[in-house]
Write a structure and sequence with these properties.
The complex is a heterodimer of chains A (about 120) and B (about 110).
Chain A: E1 4-7, E2 10-13, E3 19-25, E4 32-38, E5 44-51, E6 57-58, E7 67-73, E8 76-81, E9 90-97, E10 107-108, E11 112-116
Parallel strand pairs in A: 2-11
Antiparallel strand pairs in A: 1-3, 3-8, 4-5, 4-9, 5-6, 7-8, 9-10, 9-11
Chain B: E1 4-7, E2 10-14, E3 19-25, E4 31-37, E5 44-49, E6 55-58, E7 61-65, E8 71-76, E9 85-92, E10 101-103, E11 107-112
Parallel strand pairs in B: 2-11
Antiparallel strand pairs in B: 1-3, 3-8, 4-5, 4-9, 6-7, 7-8, 9-10, 9-11
The chains are: A mainly beta (about 120), B mainly beta (about 110).
Chain lengths: ~120, ~110
Protein backbone atom coordinates (compact mmCIF):
# COMPACT_ATOMS: atom_id res chain seq x y z
CA UNK A 1 0.00 0.00 0.00
CA UNK A 2 0.88 3.65 -0.23
CA UNK A 3 3.16 5.16 2.40
CA UNK A 4 2.52 8.27 4.43
CA UNK A 5 5.36 9.47 6.61
CA UNK A 6 4.67 11.67 9.60
CA UNK A 7 7.37 13.42 11.56
CA UNK A 8 8.17 13.72 14.41
CA UNK A 9 6.69 10.67 16.08
CA UNK A 10 7.06 12.17 19.53
CA UNK A 11 7.68 15.70 20.71
CA UNK A 12 7.81 17.35 24.09
CA UNK A 13 7.63 21.11 24.16
CA UNK A 14 7.29 23.88 26.68
CA UNK A 15 4.04 25.68 27.15
CA UNK A 16 3.85 28.73 24.90
CA UNK A 17 6.08 27.39 22.13
CA UNK A 18 5.02 26.22 18.68
CA UNK A 19 5.39 22.77 17.20
CA UNK A 20 5.35 21.81 13.53
CA UNK A 21 4.28 18.35 12.38
CA UNK A 22 4.97 17.18 8.86
CA UNK A 23 2.98 14.71 6.81
CA UNK A 24 4.44 13.41 3.56
CA UNK A 25 3.02 11.04 0.98
CA UNK A 26 6.09 9.15 -0.18
CA UNK A 27 4.97 7.28 -3.25
CA UNK A 28 1.82 9.01 -4.41
CA UNK A 29 0.40 12.49 -4.85
CA UNK A 30 -2.26 13.67 -2.45
CA UNK A 31 -4.38 16.70 -3.23
CA UNK A 32 -6.13 16.25 0.07
CA UNK A 33 -4.76 15.38 3.46
CA UNK A 34 -6.70 15.09 6.66
CA UNK A 35 -5.53 15.99 10.14
CA UNK A 36 -6.95 14.15 13.12
CA UNK A 37 -6.58 14.34 16.84
CA UNK A 38 -7.04 11.31 19.02
CA UNK A 39 -7.35 11.22 22.79
CA UNK A 40 -6.46 8.01 24.67
CA UNK A 41 -8.88 5.19 23.91
CA UNK A 42 -11.09 7.45 21.84
CA UNK A 43 -11.95 7.80 18.20
CA UNK A 44 -10.33 9.96 15.59
CA UNK A 45 -11.53 13.53 15.65
CA UNK A 46 -11.19 15.26 12.31
CA UNK A 47 -9.63 18.67 12.81
CA UNK A 48 -9.25 19.91 9.29
CA UNK A 49 -9.01 18.97 5.66
CA UNK A 50 -5.89 20.21 3.96
CA UNK A 51 -6.10 21.05 0.27
CA UNK A 52 -3.04 21.57 -1.87
CA UNK A 53 -2.72 25.15 -2.97
CA UNK A 54 -5.70 26.46 -1.04
CA UNK A 55 -6.85 27.18 2.48
CA UNK A 56 -7.62 24.32 4.78
CA UNK A 57 -11.18 23.55 5.79
CA UNK A 58 -11.51 23.41 9.55
CA UNK A 59 -14.11 21.45 11.48
CA UNK A 60 -16.41 23.24 13.85
CA UNK A 61 -14.73 24.09 17.13
CA UNK A 62 -11.17 23.86 15.81
CA UNK A 63 -9.27 27.14 16.04
CA UNK A 64 -7.61 27.81 12.72
CA UNK A 65 -5.28 30.42 14.21
CA UNK A 66 -4.04 27.90 16.70
CA UNK A 67 -3.70 24.95 14.37
CA UNK A 68 -2.07 26.31 11.25
CA UNK A 69 -2.16 24.06 8.23
CA UNK A 70 -0.09 24.47 5.12
CA UNK A 71 -0.34 22.19 2.11
CA UNK A 72 2.31 23.60 -0.17
CA UNK A 73 2.79 20.63 -2.48
CA UNK A 74 1.10 17.44 -3.56
CA UNK A 75 3.23 15.42 -1.17
CA UNK A 76 3.54 17.58 1.94
CA UNK A 77 1.17 19.05 4.48
CA UNK A 78 2.19 20.59 7.79
CA UNK A 79 0.28 21.24 10.99
CA UNK A 80 1.68 23.84 13.36
CA UNK A 81 0.35 23.96 16.89
CA UNK A 82 0.94 27.54 17.94
CA UNK A 83 1.40 28.73 21.51
CA UNK A 84 0.92 25.20 22.76
CA UNK A 85 -0.69 24.54 26.12
CA UNK A 86 -0.88 21.34 28.17
CA UNK A 87 -4.44 20.75 26.98
CA UNK A 88 -3.06 20.47 23.43
CA UNK A 89 -1.22 17.32 24.45
CA UNK A 90 -2.61 14.57 22.29
CA UNK A 91 -1.96 12.13 19.46
CA UNK A 92 -2.11 13.87 16.08
CA UNK A 93 -2.48 11.77 12.95
CA UNK A 94 -2.55 12.74 9.31
CA UNK A 95 -4.00 10.76 6.47
CA UNK A 96 -3.88 11.15 2.73
CA UNK A 97 -5.82 9.90 -0.21
CA UNK A 98 -4.29 9.47 -3.63
CA UNK A 99 -4.81 12.04 -6.36
CA UNK A 100 -7.90 11.28 -8.37
CA UNK A 101 -8.93 8.44 -6.08
CA UNK A 102 -11.31 9.97 -3.61
CA UNK A 103 -13.32 6.77 -3.27
CA UNK A 104 -10.46 4.72 -1.93
CA UNK A 105 -8.91 4.14 1.41
CA UNK A 106 -7.03 6.65 3.47
CA UNK A 107 -3.41 5.97 4.30
CA UNK A 108 -2.30 7.12 7.69
CA UNK A 109 0.93 8.50 9.01
CA UNK A 110 2.41 6.97 12.11
CA UNK A 111 1.08 9.74 14.29
CA UNK A 112 2.75 12.34 16.49
CA UNK A 113 2.43 12.19 20.24
CA UNK A 114 2.64 15.75 21.50
CA UNK A 115 3.27 16.46 25.15
CA UNK A 116 3.20 20.06 26.30
CA UNK A 117 4.80 20.67 29.68
CA UNK B 1 -24.94 16.52 11.53
CA UNK B 2 -23.85 13.31 9.91
CA UNK B 3 -22.98 10.61 12.40
CA UNK B 4 -21.82 7.03 12.42
CA UNK B 5 -22.72 5.16 15.57
CA UNK B 6 -20.60 2.15 16.44
CA UNK B 7 -21.32 -0.45 19.10
CA UNK B 8 -20.20 -1.88 21.36
CA UNK B 9 -17.54 0.47 22.65
CA UNK B 10 -15.64 -2.35 24.34
CA UNK B 11 -15.71 -6.12 23.99
CA UNK B 12 -13.81 -8.63 26.06
CA UNK B 13 -13.78 -12.23 24.79
CA UNK B 14 -12.05 -15.52 25.42
CA UNK B 15 -9.76 -16.67 22.69
CA UNK B 16 -11.80 -18.77 20.27
CA UNK B 17 -15.04 -16.87 20.79
CA UNK B 18 -16.63 -14.83 18.03
CA UNK B 19 -16.79 -11.03 17.96
CA UNK B 20 -19.01 -8.57 16.11
CA UNK B 21 -19.03 -4.79 15.89
CA UNK B 22 -21.82 -2.80 14.28
CA UNK B 23 -21.98 0.59 12.62
CA UNK B 24 -25.05 2.60 11.79
CA UNK B 25 -25.10 5.83 9.83
CA UNK B 26 -27.67 8.60 9.99
CA UNK B 27 -27.34 9.09 6.23
CA UNK B 28 -26.82 6.93 3.18
CA UNK B 29 -23.16 6.29 2.52
CA UNK B 30 -21.35 6.02 -0.79
CA UNK B 31 -19.07 3.44 0.80
CA UNK B 32 -17.89 2.25 4.17
CA UNK B 33 -14.39 1.39 5.22
CA UNK B 34 -13.02 -0.57 8.14
CA UNK B 35 -9.75 0.08 9.92
CA UNK B 36 -7.85 -1.60 12.72
CA UNK B 37 -5.70 0.28 15.19
CA UNK B 38 -3.36 -1.66 17.42
CA UNK B 39 -2.49 -0.15 20.81
CA UNK B 40 0.03 2.62 20.26
CA UNK B 41 -0.28 2.41 16.49
CA UNK B 42 -2.11 4.18 13.72
CA UNK B 43 -5.22 3.03 11.88
CA UNK B 44 -4.61 0.51 9.14
CA UNK B 45 -7.07 -0.02 6.32
CA UNK B 46 -8.80 -3.39 6.27
CA UNK B 47 -11.46 -3.23 3.59
CA UNK B 48 -13.94 -1.08 1.69
CA UNK B 49 -17.55 -1.99 0.91
CA UNK B 50 -19.33 -0.16 -1.87
CA UNK B 51 -22.35 -2.10 -3.05
CA UNK B 52 -25.66 -2.44 -1.31
CA UNK B 53 -25.83 -5.77 0.52
CA UNK B 54 -22.16 -6.49 -0.13
CA UNK B 55 -20.40 -9.18 1.89
CA UNK B 56 -16.65 -9.64 1.87
CA UNK B 57 -14.44 -12.07 3.73
CA UNK B 58 -10.84 -11.92 4.78
CA UNK B 59 -9.92 -15.23 6.41
CA UNK B 60 -11.75 -15.12 9.77
CA UNK B 61 -13.17 -11.62 9.18
CA UNK B 62 -16.55 -11.10 7.51
CA UNK B 63 -17.69 -7.61 6.51
CA UNK B 64 -21.25 -6.71 5.55
CA UNK B 65 -22.82 -3.57 4.09
CA UNK B 66 -26.55 -3.15 4.56
CA UNK B 67 -29.09 -2.99 1.77
CA UNK B 68 -29.82 0.65 2.50
CA UNK B 69 -26.09 1.48 2.67
CA UNK B 70 -26.54 2.89 6.15
CA UNK B 71 -25.23 0.09 8.32
CA UNK B 72 -22.33 -2.31 8.36
CA UNK B 73 -20.83 -5.01 10.52
CA UNK B 74 -17.52 -6.72 11.08
CA UNK B 75 -17.57 -10.26 12.42
CA UNK B 76 -14.51 -12.14 13.58
CA UNK B 77 -14.81 -15.91 13.90
CA UNK B 78 -12.76 -17.70 16.56
CA UNK B 79 -10.83 -14.70 17.83
CA UNK B 80 -7.10 -14.89 18.43
CA UNK B 81 -4.87 -12.72 20.60
CA UNK B 82 -3.54 -11.09 17.43
CA UNK B 83 -7.02 -9.65 16.86
CA UNK B 84 -6.59 -7.29 19.82
CA UNK B 85 -7.04 -3.65 18.91
CA UNK B 86 -9.66 -1.05 18.13
CA UNK B 87 -11.80 -1.50 15.05
CA UNK B 88 -13.17 1.61 13.40
CA UNK B 89 -15.73 1.95 10.68
CA UNK B 90 -15.62 5.06 8.52
CA UNK B 91 -18.39 6.03 6.19
CA UNK B 92 -17.81 8.14 3.15
CA UNK B 93 -20.31 10.80 2.30
CA UNK B 94 -20.09 12.91 -0.79
CA UNK B 95 -19.29 16.25 0.77
CA UNK B 96 -18.23 18.35 -2.17
CA UNK B 97 -14.73 17.76 -3.39
CA UNK B 98 -13.36 16.52 -0.10
CA UNK B 99 -15.58 13.47 0.39
CA UNK B 100 -14.51 13.18 3.97
CA UNK B 101 -14.87 10.09 6.08
CA UNK B 102 -17.22 10.06 9.04
CA UNK B 103 -15.68 7.90 11.73
CA UNK B 104 -17.38 5.66 14.23
CA UNK B 105 -16.12 5.80 17.81
CA UNK B 106 -14.47 2.41 17.48
CA UNK B 107 -14.84 -0.90 19.26
CA UNK B 108 -11.96 -1.90 21.45
CA UNK B 109 -11.45 -5.68 21.44
CA UNK B 110 -9.59 -7.50 24.20
CA UNK B 111 -8.91 -11.23 23.87
CA UNK B 112 -8.05 -13.45 26.83
CA UNK B 113 -5.66 -16.27 25.93
Amino acid sequence: GAVVSQHPSRVICKSGTSVKIECRSLDFQATTMFWYRQFPKQSLMLMATSNEGSKATYEQGVEKDKFLINHASLTLSTLTVTSAHPEDSSFYICSARALGRMNTEAFFGQGTRLTVV
Amino acid sequence: GQQVMQIPQYQHVQEGEDFTTYCNSSTTLSNIQWYKQRPGGHPVFLIQLVKSGEVKKQKRLTFQFGEAKKNSSLHITATQTTDVGTYFCAGQVNAGNNRKLIWGLGTSLAVNP
